[in-house]
Backbone:
């Protein structure tokens, strides 16, 4: 959704018509888990969406990085976020304080058929795969 | 009287020797000048050994430290002294064309988060996921995804 997300935010979220929820789907092993943990750890300091944007913008680097090197990479990236306390973030990430919750939620979603990504759920309707702004707009308009 | 004869003979021999030396002098001087000209006109070139055991014999240039070698044509020796091997002239390093390699910036040079979320409420779902937008918004979009 990254490509159309800024447009959705400006068109629907900022005016108060839509609430956007992000739920992790762990389909890429350790990389999925570690990046989701990083977003959750940043979220504990009120910067989930900032880390969310950064992770999407740099996903090619994440894909090329060996799982063993992900933690230092994510720590460096987190240090770029203004106002984020690196020590608290590093502690959260290294001690894996959010891992259990993330994996439990993923398991629950899989029981409900969420096994691929991206999937957009809008008003009880599921859209599979990448969607254009027009397709998302059509689904939003259908609910309103 | 016998001593006088010996003396006369000695004088004759000396005169004959001097005349011989005088005849040989021009040839000796010419030979010396040729040798000197050969020695001065062909300075020693350590990179172009011309001995038969040298791998450069036959005019094959040997690379210099800069990797660039120019082999000059053999010089004709007007003095008759053969110079043999070609002269190797190393090209100064400054004359080499520099190789410019363009390195693209690393992908993680993408800027950190922009201001697009500024002023928008953030909340959490009951099971701890993050939501962007007014909690009471009439429509909810749930994005199931990961960061890869």
Residues:
């Amino acid at each position: 959704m990254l490509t159309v997300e800024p447009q959705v935010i400006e068109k629907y979220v900022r005016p108060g018509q839509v609430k956007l929820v992000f739920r992790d789907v762990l389909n890429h092993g350790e990389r999925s888990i570690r990046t989701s943990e990083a977003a959750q750890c940043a979220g504990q300091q009120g910067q989930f969406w900032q880390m969310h944007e950064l992770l999407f913008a740099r996903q090619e680097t994440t894909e090329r990085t060996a799982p063993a090197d992900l933690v230092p990479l994510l720590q460096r990236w987190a240090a770029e976020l203004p106002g984020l306390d690196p020590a608290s973030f590093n502690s959260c990430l290294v001690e894996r304080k959010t891992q259990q919750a993330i994996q439990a939620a993923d398991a629950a979603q899989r029981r409900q058929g969420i096994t691929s990504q991206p999937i957009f759920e809008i008003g009880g309707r599921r859209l599979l795969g990448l969607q254009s702004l027009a397709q998302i707009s059509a689904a939003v308009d259908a609910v309103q | 009287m016998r001593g006088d004869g010996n003396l006369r003979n000695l004088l004759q021999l000396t005169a004959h020797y001097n005349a011989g030396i005088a005849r040989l002098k021009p040839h000796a001087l010419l030979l010396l000048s040729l040798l000197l000209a050969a020695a001065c006109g062909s300075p020693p070139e350590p990179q172009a050994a011309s001995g038969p055991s040298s791998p450069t014999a036959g005019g094959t240039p040997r690379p210099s430290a800069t990797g660039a070698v120019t082999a000059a044509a053999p010089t004709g020796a007007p003095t008759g002294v053969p110079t043999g091997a070609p002269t190797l002239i190393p090209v100064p390093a400054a004359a080499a064309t520099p190789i410019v390699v363009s390195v693209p910036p690393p992908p993680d040079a993408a800027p950190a988060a922009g201001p697009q979320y500024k002023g928008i409420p953030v909340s959490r779902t009951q099971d701890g996921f993050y939501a962007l937008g007014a909690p009471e918004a009439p429509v909810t979009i749930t994005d199931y995804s990961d960061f890869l």
User: Anything to note?
Assistant: Helices of chain A lie at 5-13, 29-43, 48-57, 59-64, 70-78, 86-94, 99-111, 133-143.
